[in-house]
Amino acid sequence: MKTEYEVVYRTHNTYEQNVREAFFSFLIQPCPDASQVVKSVAFSNSLEAEVFSHANSFGFEVMNLHTMKPFTEFEFQMKAVVEKSQPVYPLGSTLPVAEEQQLLGDHLFYLQNHLYLGFAHYTRLQESLRSKLLMRAPDQGVYDYLQALNTFIYELLEFDPEPTHVCTSANEVLKLGRGVCQDYTHLFIAIARLNKIPCRYVSGYLNQGLNLTGSAVMHAWAEAFLPGFGWQGFDPTNNLLADEHYIKAAHGSDYADCSPLKGTLKTNGSQKTSYSVKVTPCPLPETTPQPHSISSQMM
Amino acid sequence: MTPTDMDEAERQNQTSEVFRNYQIPPQFLDEVFRAPGAVHPHYETVLQHFLEFSKDEFKELNEHAKMSFFNQGITFSVYSDKAKGVERIFPFDLFPRIIPAAEWARVEEGLVQRCLALNLFMQDIYSDQHILRDKVVPADLIFSSKNYLKAMLGFKPIGGIYNHISGTDLIKHSDGQYYVLEDNLRCPSGISYVLSNRVAMKRTLFQMFRQFNVRTVNEYPQELLATMQSVAPRGIDMPTCVVLTPGVYNSAYFEHAFLALTMGVALVEGRDLYVEKNFVYMKTINGPKRVDVVYRRLDDDFLDPMAFRADSMLGVPGIMAAYKKGNVNLLNAPGTGFADDKAVYTYVPDIIRYYLQQEPILNNVHTYRCEKDDDFQYVLENMANLVIKPVDESGGYGILIGNKATKEELSEFKALITENRRKYIAQPIMNLSMHATFIEGEDQFEPRHVDLRSFTLLGKDRQFVLKGGLSRVALKKGSLIVNSSQGGGSKDTWVMAEDGPSMSMEQNGSMEQSMTMNGQTMTMGPQGMSIGTQGSLSSQAPGAQ
């Protein structure tokens, strides 16, 4: 079964003082992959600056614009139509545990996946915190384990946008016991990597018709590599597998590779930014958009 | 020329208040003297000149040389100084360091070999990683380096060069061999001092200098420019090149300005450039001008707030994307820092063998890796004769110098290493060679430790090694630390054009002409015109006869 979605991302920034020069980068458009086809994508901005793109380190298109015309207000919009099909799921573990582990321990496999196996600011866990984590049992298959890990994190953390911010690391999340989808995802990634399972950070959009946590704004989840199968999405914030309701924009080692908006401005004074996301299944009538005033943090 | 008997007698008399108390260091190699009174052949003529100066004459020459630095504007001020705003110069020593032609030829060969191998290494790490697959270098060592950039993976710079400019630090050990202490593949500095040292030398002792056939250094800026042009984006005939500086507060700002000026290209800061549609432009009074090649003297972290540190106001937003589109080239390539890492250093000989199937020409300082059992045993038993370093820290932190450490420190370190063997390496304490150096205050020559920073340029199908380099001197007695921030000075470094008799009547520096009339010498050269009076200082000089 196929579903068509219209995805609209809109950001609106206002500045106290004139902005004399600005450079913005957006990593927000849905990407093509095995279960999604991007039918169309269009951009518009209030500065009428020409948008130009480049592929980032992981091959995802980043849209940029530069202006030297002074402004105090900036609006940017991306509108895409995506056809989403039901992804193929793994039917349990396809390989015996010993074979799975042999592959995960292989040197060449490690080299090919090293970007999804390393530990950096977001994903490095202190030795002292590791005892209370769920680790793979010696006779447990990878898929089985990751599903358990998904539930483990879902139950361990409480969804709360208050205490964390874009720079919060998995260590801090573990201590706080609360956070948003970005934090759930980093913790999932960190623990999966401790088990030598390649795992990457995904940013994207959720079907807004299902009342899933995090659907009002850009969402984050994880993709882990299942030996004998390939990459499979896990959403620890909702304790779900990523299915046809998940529209992927980009992936990377962690949030730093997927930050949806970056900008450098020459201005004095403060700024107000807000953004909204609208994901509408096309055949259905439109639902009312839900603008959220947040500080570029993903829920 | 052999001195006449009369000269000899005169020399014995004057000898040299300035050398009277010179003591040859027992356990180090002295670059000038083989034994008391016995001079290395390539220093004979120069030393003879220096012996002819009285103490007062020498002090005067020294002041003259200092003035040359003030006049060239090569000064810096130290912020922490009590006397704020006082301009200082890096101490310069008039006694040149001399490297015979044959000796240099071997060094040069070794430098090119090392830099080429390191370039192939970086190319491999950012593409197929064969060297990691073959486990010649441990993968974790590379992946854990913060200077390993995923933005460079799968991307090959225009021309295939990463380390366009390498500053390789060499020392001469007591065994008479050159050893590489460090590879600097990011933004090696010091070249401006090499060039100004030569100017100061010529201004002060031109009559002496011109008798020697010394290899020139002043072609460096043109070579650097040609290197930049050789790696310009495809289809650009007359590339616009610029030097990108972090600004006037950077301690090497003088050098950035100097290089831009001598290459005849614009000196820009990040705010002077911008990226539009993945091309880089320079803001000029005549409107935007496209920039093709950037010699950036800015660390990777600060280069592009869109790609690296988001809070950098020094960089150019979007320049990495323009670079990866092939619309601009950057020197050096971003992400070279993993390859000049201390831990990777120990693998450079293996890296040379791996890519070039050659034996390394230049020695590496032998390194014991504590993770290996027999090395670990050796380190524990010989701690007092070793320098022990953690592999992942820089700036001299956490280093133990065995022969300077107390008993407590040694046992403390023993525990540290045993706990984390993977983290430590050890090297023998290297005996940097010593060189006669004029010590102000003592007003005489004394031996001081020296090293040599060399400069190698790699472009598309072109290589250049500067004939000479920056000989840095540790001015503090007994000190091995040559860094300018820690009381180091420098010397002009003479690579001789040919060996054999160390004197030559040939003109050095083809661009110079001089004319002698009524005892006055007028010189025209790249440094302008100067007029000198032939006085007693040069009356013994064969060139003046």
From TrEMBL, chain A:
Residues 173-238 form the Transglutaminase-like domain. Coiled coil: none annotated. SUPFAM superfamilies: Cysteine proteinases (SSF54001). This is Transglutaminase family protein. It comes from Rufibacter sediminis.
